[in-house]
Design goal:
By secondary structure, the protein is α/β, with parallel strands linked by helices. The two termini are 34 Å apart. The protein has a domain of 204 residues: EreA/ChaN-like  fold (3-Layer(aba) Sandwich), CATH 3.40.1660.10. It contains 14 helices and 14 strands.
Length: 394
């Protein structure tokens, strides 16, 4: 949805055109309301704000080591409030493997995780190791199987791996041939349609043999791959259309995951997806907008946090470029610059409670594009890391 009063401003020195909140006004609010966050535990004043909502959404900048430490701490600290689920922006084909890993590898105990999994999910696995089985935190994937995340190649491997770990699958042909990734989209659809038919016609026996949970995992893999085939094909012709299709799939998976979990859910996803109204990116409706205003499952019970870092350094092998908010295009009255200057080298949680965030245009830096809008329409709070390190993708 388009946001009334949104102004896009080129990066300029001094004050941002269109923003009507000064650096002095921001500094006063940031000083008064900012809460310093330590690495090992979150202050009670933060947790008490989050615990009453069904969903806490984290809109991240991808691949920051400090962010994944924050996610693990937050998820652990919200456990006593009934939060039992973390949803992550990973292809759905990884869903069963990630969840099994954080639960202790009960299905695939001999699987050795690659660095990507280890850097992000080991802390949650360690949390679960000391929890009773019924209280463990599940980590679930909510994204399409796109080419830049392995696509058809990884789907073929992961699907056959899962089925191979389940008992007595021989009576129904549910394997995928190794040449599946090289097939045309039409041929891939034929394979997936055949799998869906085999699963459905053998449902009662498979549920009895595998259990309802494992059957549902396999069936959902097939369902999501069918949609992912079309998204991958659409990328070659209409990238924006494919992005919309992907977002629609994410919304469906998120609603499904939340409906299945009676406790609270943390969602970790990119900052664009998390926004509650349109500010950055395309004009499509993002996940946060849908969950905040339309989802019948969430019913508006959501707290959305936008994340950034004042200074970002690159670890060996990481992509991107180093970043410093003070040396960026941020003008003096841009909120992330003010946060960094008010709380230098500290990680700070800033609730957007002040009335200025509801009806006045605040300058906000998104990758050196400066927006001006009533910021509370996008996020309920901001977190800025004083220093963050970008990790390699793999």
């Amino acid at each position: 949805m388009a946001l009334a009063g949104l102004i896009l401003v080129a990066g300029v020195a001094g004050c941002a055109a269109g923003a009507d909140v000064t650096s002095d006004e921001l500094s006063a609010v940031v000083t008064r309301d900012g809460v310093v966050v330590e690495a090992t535990a979150l202050p009670s004043e933060i947790l008490s704000r989050l615990a009453d909502d069904r969903v806490v959404m984290l809109g991240e900048t991808h691949h920051l080591r400090e962010h994944w430490a924050f996610v693990a701490t937050l998820t652990s600290d919200l456990h006593d409030a009934g939060f039992r689920q973390l949803l992550v922006e990973r292809p759905q084909m990884n869903d069963w493997l990630i969840d099994d890993y954080v639960l202790g590898g009960e299905l695939a105990p001999d699987w050795v995780p690659p660095p990507y999994f280890d850097r992000r999910f080991t802390a949650i696995r360690e949390i679960n190791a000391v929890l009773p089985a019924e209280q463990r935190i599940h980590v679930r994937s909510i994204d399409a199987n796109e080419d830049d995340s392995g696509g058809a190649t990884d789907f073929q491997v992961l699907f056959d791996m899962l089925v191979g770990l389940l008992p007595d699958a021989g009576f129904v042909d549910v394997a995928i041939s190794a040449d599946y990734p090289d097939m045309s989209s039409a041929a891939q659809h034929q394979v997936i349609e055949g799998l869906a038919a085999a699963l459905e016609s053998n449902r009662s026996r498979l549920v009895e043999t595998w259990g309802a949970v494992r059957y549902a995992q396999v069936a959902e893999m097939v369902e999501v791959e069918a949609v992912s085939i079309d998204i991958r094909e659409q990328r070659t012709q209409d990238d924006d259309g494919a992005a919309r299709s992907r977002e629609d799939l994410i919304k469906q998976l998120v609603d499904r995951r939340i409906a299945e979990e009676p406790g609270g859910t943390v969602i970790n996803i990119g900052g664009h997806h998390a926004q509650k109204s349109h500010l950055m990116g395309t004009e499509q409706q993002w996940l946060g907008d849908y969950l905040a205003h339309e989802s019948p499952v969430v019913d508006g019970s959501i707290f959305v946090i936008g994340f950034s870092s004042a200074h970002t350094e690159l670890e060996a092998g990481a992509g991107g470029t180093p970043f410093d908010i003070v040396e960026s295009a941020s003008p003096e009255n841009e909120i992330l610059r003010v946060m960094a200057e008010t709380w230098p080298n500290r990680t700070v949680f800033l609730p957007l409670d002040d009335a200025m965030f509801l009806d006045r245009r605040v300058a906000y830096n998104s990758e050196d594009v400066i927006y001006a809008s009533p910021l509370r329409q996008q996020y309920d709070a901001l977190v800025q890391y004083g220093l963050a390190h970008r990790m390699p993708i793999n």
